[in-house]
């Protein structure tokens, strides 16, 4: 066992982990932060995306010990201080960027990383950035609309039925 300490969502946390403990398991099982979803364990789906020192990472492919001393932000850390939805989360709700919700935490975390890197991405840039996140429900269009809205840009029209 190894003792691991890090800051998660602005709060210091620590725990004893086996060397093989993934960051996703440390967060979910050790810290009770179940918003970080694990969908594939192979880095394909993106449901487990968190930020480590400001960088988006798939937490199912990073050992908890690798995050020792790091600043980690999970979906739970994206809410406003008063507990209300953050800008990106609210945009996902307003533009129906979710259905079952399983991929949503990873999508929001990826969107936050994109907007930190590029505050005014084009629709094509949003779609390209989300290539590492799989959604089986929405068809992505409303997710893209939500991210465009969160960036303060014009929102693409709803496709004609």
Provide tags for this entry:
single chain, Ubiquitin-like (UB roll), DNA polymerase, domain 1, elongated, alpha+beta
In words, what does this structure look like?
The chain has helices spanning 23-31, 87-94, 104-117, 123-129, 141-150, and strands spanning 2-8, 11-17, 49-52, 55-58, 71-73. It is of the alpha+beta class and 161 residues long. The protein folds into two domains: 2-78, Ubiquitin-like (UB roll) (Roll); 87-150, DNA polymerase, domain 1 (Orthogonal Bundle), CATH 1.10.150. The N and C termini lie far apart (56 Å).
Number of domains: 2
Oligomer: single chain
Largest sheet: 5 strands, mixed
The SSE string, one letter per element, is EEHEEEHHHH
CATH architecture of the largest domain: Roll
Helices and strands in order, then pairings?
Layout: E1 2-8, E2 11-17, H1 23-31, E3 49-52, E4 55-58, E5 71-73, H2 87-94, H3 104-117, H4 123-129, H5 141-150
Parallel strand pairs: 1-5
Antiparallel strand pairs: 1-2, 3-4, 3-5
Helix pairs in contact: 2-5
Protein name: Carbon monoxide dehydrogenase small chain
EC number: 1.2.99.2
InterPro entries: 2Fe-2S-bd, 2Fe-2S-bd_dom_sf, 2Fe-2S_ferredoxin-like_sf, 2Fe-2S_ferredoxin-type, Beta-grasp_dom_sf, Diverse_Oxidoreductases
Concise overview:
This protein has 161 residues and is an alpha+beta fold. Helices cover 30% and strands 16% of the residues.
């Amino acid at each position: 066992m190894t003792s691991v300490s890090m800051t998660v969502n602005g709060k210091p946390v620590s725990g004893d982990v086996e060397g093989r403990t993934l960051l996703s398991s440390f967060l979910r099982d050790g810290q009770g932060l179940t918003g970080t979803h694990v969908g594939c364990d192979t880095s394909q789906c993106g449901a487990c995306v968190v930020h480590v020192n400001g960088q988006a990472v798939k937490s199912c492919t990073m050992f908890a010990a690798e995050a020792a001393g790091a600043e980690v932000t999970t979906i739970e850390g994206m809410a406003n201080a008063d507990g209300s939805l953050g800008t990106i989360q609210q945009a996902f709700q307003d533009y129906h960027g979710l259905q079952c919700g399983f991929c949503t935490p990873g999508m929001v975390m990826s969107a936050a990383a994109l907007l930190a890197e590029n505050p005014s991405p084009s629709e094509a840039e949003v779609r390209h950035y989300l290539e590492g996140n799989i959604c089986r429900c929405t068809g992505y269009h409303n997710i893209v609309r939500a991210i465009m809205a969160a960036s303060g840009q014009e929102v693409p029209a709803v496709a004609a039925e």
